[in-house]
Each structure stands twice: as structure tokens, then as C-alpha cells.
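Entry:
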Amino acid sequence: MSQISLDTSRKYAYRGSVMPNYSTAQVAEKLAVHKATLIRWLLDGKVKEPRRVKQVGQEIRVWNEGDVERVRKYKQENYRKGRGRKPKPKR
């Protein structure tokens, strides 16, 4: 009976793949923007904040693939490669 229990516990111990987590600096590097730019987007509310975790008395942002993709989409919609911000349409 203990063998059955062990097999069942192993079955549920690892389900699917674990999504990787990134730091703010890693996300900025991955998206080719400066870390200060990414933090500015967060503070201005242009990009939704990722999950925060307290570690050793500090709160750090923990980014997953969905968060990174959301920032990538914002960058594509609002910035041009190598030339900064897209001009606003004339009225």
C-alpha cells in the first residue's frame, strides 16, 4: 500500500513545466531597454506591475513570461527600434 501512495505522490509532485522568473534587470536586458526606463514605465503606470516578493527585508519584483510579453507588446506599440519614442499622430 505504501508503494501506491508513493507513486501517487510522485505523480502530483511535478506537474508540467515551471515558468522561469526574472529580475527587473534581466527583463530590461531581455527587451533591450535600460533598467531605469523599465522602472519609469512601471511608476508611470504604462506597464502593469509584476508580482512582488519580500526577500531579506526588501520587496523585489518577480517577472514571469506573461509579464515580459506584456512589456514587449508595450514597447512595440510605443517605441521605434534605435530611435526612441514614436511621434504622436497629428490632429
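The longest helix spans residues 65-78.
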